[in-house]
Design goal:
The structure is a single chain. This protein is an alpha/beta fold. 41% of the residues lie in helices and 13% in strands. It has a five-stranded mixed β-sheet with strand order 3-2-1-4-5. Helix 1 packs antiparallel against helix 4 (161-182) and helix 2 crosses helix 3. It is globular.
C-alpha cells in the first residue's frame, strides 16, 4: 500500500481501540470503526471528545456527567461500529485475531454505509513489528471479501479526526460498560452497534 494515500474529500473508515493492554479490569479491548462520508482536515476537539472519567471510580455526580457526555457524543457521532476482544481471545488467537476483529468492524461499516472508493485508516499499534503483522493480515482478510479499497495505518490519532472519533467511540463504550458492571447490569451499551470479533468469518 502507498504511504501517501490522499484521503481528504474521500469516504473514510477509521479504526482504533481502547484497553489494548487489558490494563482495565472489567472490560476487554474494545475496537471501533468510524465512518466519515467525506474526510476534511479538522484538528480541534469537537464537543464531548475530551476524555474524562471512563476508567476511574466516579462519584454519582461524575457518573451522571459521564453518561451525559457519552450520550452527547453518540448522538453527534452515530457512524460507529464496535467489537470486543478479550484476554482469552488474545491468548488463543493473538495478533491474527486482533486483525480479524478490525476486519470485522470495517466490513460491517462497509455493509452499512456502502461507500464508493473508501480509504481505511487504522491507528498504528504500539509496536512497528506488530503493526506490520496486523496490516498484512488485515489486508489479506479484507482482500478476501473482494472489496476495492486503499488502506493506510497512521499514528496521528490526536490530529486525524476519523481516528479520534473511533478512539472516542471505544472509550465511551468502555466507560458505559464499566458503569453497567458496577450496577450489576450485564448488557453492552449500544448493542445494535456491536458485532462479534470474528464476524467476517460468517458472511
Amino acid at each position: 500500500m502507498s504511504k501517501n494515500i490522499k484521503f481528504v474529500g474521500r469516504p473514510v473508515i477509521a479504526v482504533d481501540e481502547t484497553n489494548n493492554g487489558f490494563q482495565e479490569q472489567g472490560v476487554p479491548m474494545i475496537i471501533s470503526s468510524y465512518f466519515l462520508p467525506e474526510y476534511s482536515n479538522h484538528v480541534v476537539n469537537e464537543p464531548f471528545e475530551k476524555k474524562k472519567w471512563a476508567y476511574k471510580r466516579k462519584s454519582s455526580k461524575q457518573v451522571k456527567e459521564f453518561v451525559r457526555r457519552a450520550q452527547g457524543f453518540f448522538k453527534r457521532n452515530p457512524g460507529f461500529v464496535y467489537t470486543t476482544y478479550s484476554t482469552k481471545d488474545m491468548e488463543l488467537h493473538g495478533l491474527d485475531g486482533w486483525a480479524k476483529a478490525m476486519a470485522s468492524v470495517v466490513l460491517k461499516s462497509l455493509e452499512i454505509y456502502q461507500p464508493g472508493d473508501p480509504v481505511i485508516i487504522p491507528h498504528r499499534i504500539d509496536d512497528k513489528g506488530r503493526t506490520e503483522h496486523v496490516r498484512k493480515e488485515l489486508t489479506f482478510l479484507l482482500g478476501q471479501t473482494g472489496i476495492d479499497f486503499d488502506m493506510q495505518f497512521r499514528g496521528d490519532g490526536r490530529k486525524n479526526r476519523a481516528i479520534r472519533k473511533a478512539d472516542r467511540a471505544s472509550y465511551y463504550v468502555a466507560g458505559l460498560k464499566l458503569i453497567n458492571n458496577r450496577e450489576g447490569v450485564q448488557r453492552w451499551p449500544h448493542r445494535r452497534k456491536k458485532v462479534k470479533w470474528d464476524y467476517i468469518d460468517h458472511v
